[in-house]
Amino acid sequence: AQSVTQLDSQVPVFEEAPVELRCNYSSSVSVYLFWYVQYPNQGLQLLLKYLSGSTLVKGINGFEAEFNKSQTSFHLRKPSVHISDTAEYFCAVSKYNFNKFYFGSGTKLNVKP
Amino acid sequence: EAGVTQFPSHSVIEKGQTVTLRCDPISGHDNLYWYRRVMGKEIKFLLHFVKESKQDESGMPNNRFLAERTGGTYSTLKVQPAELEDSGVYFCASSQDVRDTIYFGEGSWLTVV
Description:
B: mainly beta, four-stranded antiparallel sheet, 11 strands
């Protein structure tokens, strides 16, 4: 079975500071990894995904994530956050058939001026 | 192009009543998914349709939940009778091919009192 852990339920950060949102997963098989973002009153939007190849993945809005197989992690980073990045971020994994995502419990990023 | 639309956006019902949630996927998307997020917990998979067929319904909690997708277009998720623990946000998502990006709706907030 697959499981995803997002240890930080809330992350407060000042505008223009760097941020890292942590995600660890466990799986007995190879998985694909995703980060989704939910802005207030909106649906989930794909930020980035890792399927294969380079372990450093770049996504939208200046976010990037690095797949670390030995540490079973897929942490999300941004070097300088904006107020508009305030949202809830979800890490997710899926098996090769893509038909089912396993999500973490979410991390609320609160960017302060 | 219209995104995934869900109706109603919010619903408050009494325990024992019936609620039907509707999802209109993006036009042309054969794959339709239902997910649920109970308060503060992770988003969990409920089921996956390919056109009108249930590909995977392993996440359906119990037989009080019934999902349909007649004609392979929109889908409904009926909860009958509703229980307090059914409260949460129900997300619908769709994709053209199973390996394509999955697009989520804004969710239907269900509160059972």
